[in-house]
Amino acid sequence: METHLEMEKGKKPSLLGMITRPGEQFERMREKPVFWLPLFVVLILSVIGAYHLNAKIDLTSELQGVPDAEAFASAMKGVGVVGGIIGSVIAILISALIYWLIVKIGKGETDYVHMFSLAVFTYFIAAAGQLINGLVIYYSNIDPEVVVTSLSSVITAGQPLKTVLGVFDLFTIWSLALVAIGLQKVGGISKKAAWTAVIILFIISLLLAFAVGLASNFFESIEGAI
């Protein structure tokens, strides 16, 4: 039994294990936080999803009159993919910092490395969602602005409600639920504190989505007036 426990402690957390046995992966993460290879896998998934999504966005119609519009549109899509990689890394770094602060406020014990590992592994679920959305949109006639796995694909609405409905996404909620469990097991805070923090983060994301939707609606109205 002691040998078995020692072997378990020596095992690294697995990305695929986040789908089948997340609690076990968090236990391993507490003993051995890893992130380099998982981060690479997460970024690859994000890139593939972003590539297929951007491929369905028609920019040439918006660039009429611009010399070499097709080449410029292709370059813009490439910039979008690179920006997606950088954005994913920044999002994970910021998420890790937020998780670290939550644990400190909740009087748990952890460090930034453990929280960065937690952020990478939970972001894997969101990256898988991005991949699925990108592939579904690429091989169908669905609006690229619609999040296939969210309420925005079920309920037709204009902005800002359309963006808000996109936050109610299966993979986003799944990822946040894993964050709550991870904050308990890796950060050592209480269940109440972990779930309260996650609910607050979700509410903030809804408010941000509402603001983005309003801004999008505003700029579209200006373009229509012009």
From TrEMBL:
<feature type="transmembrane region" description="Helical">
    <location>
        <begin position="115"/>
        <end position="140"/>
    </location>
</feature>
<keyword id="KW-0812">Transmembrane</keyword>
<feature type="transmembrane region" description="Helical">
    <location>
        <begin position="81"/>
        <end position="103"/>
    </location>
</feature>
<keyword id="KW-0472">Membrane</keyword>
<feature type="transmembrane region" description="Helical">
    <location>
        <begin position="160"/>
        <end position="183"/>
    </location>
</feature>
<dbReference type="Pfam" id="PF04893">
    <property type="entry name" value="Yip1"/>
</dbReference>
<feature type="domain" description="Yip1">
    <location>
        <begin position="17"/>
        <end position="211"/>
    </location>
</feature>
<feature type="transmembrane region" description="Helical">
    <location>
        <begin position="34"/>
        <end position="53"/>
    </location>
</feature>
<protein>
    <submittedName>
        <fullName>Peptide ABC transporter permease</fullName>
    </submittedName>
</protein>
<feature type="transmembrane region" description="Helical">
    <location>
        <begin position="195"/>
        <end position="219"/>
    </location>
</feature>
<dbReference type="InterPro" id="IPR006977">
    <property type="entry name" value="Yip1_dom"/>
</dbReference>
<keyword id="KW-1133">Transmembrane helix</keyword>
<dbReference type="GO" id="GO:0016020">
    <property type="term" value="C:membrane"/>
</dbReference>
